[in-house]
Amino acid sequence: MPASIHVVAGVLRDAGGRVLLARRPAGKHLAGLWEFPGGKCDAGEAPVDALARELREEIGVVVESARPLIAVPHRYPEQDILLDVWRVSAWSGVPHPHEGQALAWVERSALPQVAMPPADRPVIAALELPDRYLITPETSPDELGELTAGIERACRRGLRLIQLRQPHWPRARLAEAARSARAICHEHGTRLLLNGDVQLAMVLGLDGVHMPARLAADLVQRPLPPDRWFGVSCHDAAELLHAVRVGADFATLSPVLPTPGHEQAEALGWERFADLVAHAPMPVYALGGMEGEDIDAAWMAGAQGIAAIRGLWA
Length: 314
Prior knowledge:
α3 (144-156) packs parallel to α4 (171-188). The model has no long low-confidence stretch (mean pLDDT 94). It contains nine helices and 15 strands. It is 28% helix and 26% strand. It has 314 residues and is an alpha/beta fold. The protein is globular and about 65 Å long.
């Protein structure tokens, strides 16, 4: 099979939050499907330069600011590709077709229903997920009030994805905490995931579940319906691959940096983290030793963003 083709694409949003899609013209591979606009990255060309060139040539806009969003490796029968997608935060010009393709502004909520190439599907999850993912610190069951107060503070600070993780709590007390946290999170537009317990999350109407690696290892298929978020904790390439196989929407990968209390765990470092994420066709959060100022390093390493307990808790 020929060497993998490096394709760059840009996510452009208008003032109303709609996303620009381009339709592949007749005669091209996957003709008729909608995709994020872009094109091939030439040998030796920096991806951000290729992005600027392709968007200028294809839709007539000038990229002023962009950052990596997600890179999706995908194997088609005809060709392996790496779809390198960037979030374009500022551009000039009015998008219009230069190559006979149709363009459309699409509501973000409607993207899952659009006919798109398989490589573009993980981009939808990357667009929906925030760049910071809070995991609640472990507390004792008699500290329910302090826990929910901390969750409310996090929501007020703008955190929009929270994992309720209290692995040692009695299930009845955990359910009580989840109900209180659900009401707080939904008031602020924050998604609440429960650690490990699929049945309880579904009964309580939570937004999804985050599965520890040891529990995910026993799965043979996705345990949740497609309208709920399913995340998996991963620590190596094998666990990332298994998360993809069982239909995870995203993963955390850890530990990236040394973490207080887990000094015995060998840190991946940013270089190894980036190498592992490059082979994972889904959003991956960097976890382990993360602070707010690590977000740029995480993006440049291919992460969706950062996940943290101490670094994101008030």
